[in-house]
Amino acid sequence: MKEAPSSVKEASDSAPPAYYQNPLLKNAADPGVLKASDGKYYAYPTGGNKFEAYSSRDLVHWSKEGVALSGKELKWANTKFWAPEVIERSGKYYMFFSAAADDGVPKISVAVSDSPKGPFKHPSEKPLFDFGVGTIDPYIFQDDDGKTYMYYTKNLFEVGDHKESHIYVAELAPDLLSVKGEPKLLLKPEQAWEVASGKMRWNEGSFVLKRNGTYYLMYSANCYCGRAYAVGYATSKQATGPFTKYANNPILNAPYKEVSGTGHHSVTASPDGKELFIVYHTHIDPAKGGGARQLNIDRMGIAPDGTLYVNGPTMT
Ligand code: FUB
């Protein structure tokens, strides 16, 4: 990524305005958003051969903090630096992400820092979560029973005449640097939407919300809903499933000509904790597809019947 995009506003200590403006950030995708114990939000997007951090006190004004994890820190990777996700645990920060070596097969790993701004250091000469196949989009869920899970995607692999990706879950060991037990397959593309067909059947970018004992496993996948990529969810009473897709998926789609490819999101709460926000990327130009992306933010919520909804995408 080049200079800080013009849409990135300076941080402010004044009272937050009641609105935000889309796009939140240009030349960025796959936002991982951390609400940290220092009272700030940190956003970590995909954007080149490094991971940069942006901070905000109010989800409206954002400041560029600089490079949080340099590509040079990863001796084993030189491409596909994708989808960072940071969690805070006992005063340390853990950045999960995927990256690939010359073979182009993405692997998940984790780097550690004393600050949400980095620098994040990688503790090994190799990726820490090598499942022997291409894997991307780690999302870390800290359950209230003390267990921590990593949801991730087995990246596009050949199945008959097409490629598809599947969502898995694995419990993490207490040090967060390895998995405990065998990963479990949670969702194939046909379990995400009514029908899945075509040469590329995505099912990726997972995110988990837990409310009133229900686990909402959100994801981005193909659908026949006007555009090829949208956000939906499935629910379960257990973190490890089985998950049942929501009948009225998608909950975030792109019905406009000006925007498409709404997906790979994070969910975070407003500073007062009363509202939920979804931060996601869109394709700037439908003709260019995923090659040109930017970040949006919109309000979302849980309806009285327990279903998720998004008030968006909004264009400004
Ligand atoms: O940005 C690279 C990849 O594209 C992500 O890992 C996927 O989720 C998709 O957004």
From TrEMBL:
What residues form the membrane-spanning segments?
A: none
Question: Coiled coil: present as a keyword of the record?
Answer: no
The protein's UniProt keywords, in alphabetical order, are: Carbohydrate metabolism, Glycosidase, Hydrolase, Polysaccharide degradation, Signal, Xylan degradation
Q: Name one GO molecular function term.
A: hydrolase activity, hydrolyzing O-glycosyl compounds
Q: Name one GO biological process term.
A: xylan catabolic process
> Location of site Important for catalytic activity, responsible for pKa modulation of the active site Glu and correct orientation of both the proton donor and substrate?
137
Active-site residues, as the UniProt record annotates them? 30, 204
Know the name of this protein?
DUF7402 domain-containing protein
What taxonomic lineage is listed for the species of origin? Answer: Bacteria, Bacillati, Bacillota, Bacilli, Bacillales
Q: Which residues of the full protein are shown?
A: 28 to 343 of 497
